[in-house]
């Protein structure tokens, strides 16, 4: 469905300037605490695993340390798997699912892999329940060289510093009803474009890299997730979020070209998870469990490939 939406900031069909971006920023409020909800959980992992501060984001009203957690017995000879969460800070299960990955999966799989989790890449977005950072920039379109997103640049620099190629990268996301009610209309207004809404899929789905889809890998992830929650069916046009399915529950995008998080890492196996937390058929805990199941499905697939 395509519709002309007049957002409350800006002039129709004209991109935002600094005045409009400042107005947008002034309307954002803190709704929850990154330090209480996330940092405290990360600190509890110290001693069990390696916690590293890989950067700091300094914004007008606050300074946010950025953390990653690495598994024990880190060895260059092991394949390395990266899990990222909270690229869009408002996507709650991406953050808390990533923390549960450390708590529930590291002990089981660290013998076979170097595991590294960055659970909350966009802490200001987490606190204000936002897709963008304070500069009205979407980090998940800016995982590129010389990124204007401090969130994306910090992660790229950190992963580069590990000096190990990645075998796999799983990026944990959600698709929510607010994508249509707030974030897509705001994006269209910011860019001076016509807003195009899509039908929000009821269920879990994956986004693969169209240049390297790895369909068996995607299928293995979905099979594990299906034990926890339902997989999204195609809409009446046979699509998910306006994109053609490559298999049930999977679409593919040119991730590197679009500046998506899984694109920068150039991992052989990569996928972006999409949980639907607004479904009447799931709960917040099941959404977190689905994120863990996705990573577990990926790791089990990789173990089978190594045999």
Automatic annotation (TrEMBL):
Highest taxon in the source lineage: Bacteria
InterPro entries registered for this protein in UniProt: Peptidase_M14
GO molecular-function terms, A-Z: metallocarboxypeptidase activity; zinc ion binding
One of the protein's GO biological processes: proteolysis
Peptidase M14 domain location: 30-306
PROSITE patterns: PEPTIDASE_M14
Gene3D superfamilies attached to this UniProt entry: Zn peptidases
Catalytic residue list: 274 (proton donor/acceptor)
SUPFAM superfamilies with a match to the protein in the record: Zn-dependent exopeptidases
Family: Belongs to the peptidase M14 family.
Protein name: Peptidase
